[in-house]
Automatic annotation (TrEMBL):
The complex comprises the extracytoplasmic solute receptor protein and the two transmembrane proteins. It comes from the Bacteria. It comes from Marinobacter fuscus. The chain crosses the membrane at residues 36-58, 70-90, 111-132, 158-186. It is a multi-pass membrane protein. It is found in: Cell inner membrane; Cell membrane. Residues 49-172 form the Tripartite ATP-independent periplasmic transporters DctQ component domain. Part of the tripartite ATP-independent periplasmic (TRAP) transport system. Pfam families: DctQ. This is TRAP transporter small permease protein. The keyword Mitochondrion does not apply. GO terms for molecular function: transmembrane transporter activity. The keyword Cell inner membrane applies. Keywords: Cell inner membrane, Cell membrane, Membrane, Transmembrane, Transmembrane helix, Transport.
């Protein structure tokens, strides 16, 4: 699991080196931040459920509603969907199709892991940069949603940017880890083990 990302490689020489110690510490810190973001995403889900239930109740019983509920739901949806991305990536929990790759040898599968991680970094980089530009723009302009509450746009944009920057960092980390596995610097954890994805 993603909460067990800081185990040592079986190779004592590699694990005892200074770069490996830095990687171990950074992975432990990154895993902690990912758990915080995961819990924040869970809070957003509960907030969504409470908001939608309250809105339905108000409309049914009092023929009323929550002001700007569509905007608020949209902002919470960003947190619920984007904040857990890095945690899921660390756990390699994305949906994958392995009909053919399972028939390949271990080395080829490890090389495919590198390919997937590197392409993930390439794909996420422009989205992360666009999220940064959008966040800076709404902060500088003070943009807000039109509605009764005139809610600012920066909270949702900041959630999106923070979620994607952490996702981007985790993909870089996975790329480094997969390359180290291919070259035998660290040992690959067994699939499905709690140590999967860690050093």
């Amino acid at each position: 699991m993603a909460n067990s990302l800081n185990f040592s490689a079986q190779s004592s020489k590699s694990a005892s080196s200074a770069p490996m110690k830095v990687l171990l510490s950074s992975r432990g810190f990154l895993g902690g931040v990912e758990k915080v973001f995961l819990y924040a995403g869970v809070i957003c889900v509960f907030a969504l459920a409470l908001l939608i239930s309250s809105s339905v109740l108000l409309r049914t019983v009092f023929n009323s509603g929550i002001p700007d509920e569509v905007v608020i739901v949209g902002e919470f949806m960003i947190g619920a969907l984007v904040l857990p991305l890095a945690f899921v990536a660390a756990d390699r929990g994305f949906i994958t199709v392995e009909i053919f790759t399972q028939k390949f040898g271990v080395k080829i599968q490890q090389a495919l892991n590198v390919l997937a991680s590197v392409f993930g970094v390439i794909a996420v980089a422009p989205i992360t940069y666009a999220a940064y530009l959008s966040f800076i723009d709404v902060v500088d302009s003070g943009a807000y949603f039109f509605g009764l509450l005139e809610l600012p746009k920066w909270p949702g944009r900041s959630l999106f940017f923070c979620g994607y920057i952490l996702f981007f960092i985790r993909l870089i980390d996975l790329s480094i880890f997969d390359v180290l596995v291919v070259f035998g610097v660290v040992n690959a954890p067994e699939e499905g083990s709690e140590k999967e994805g860690g050093y």
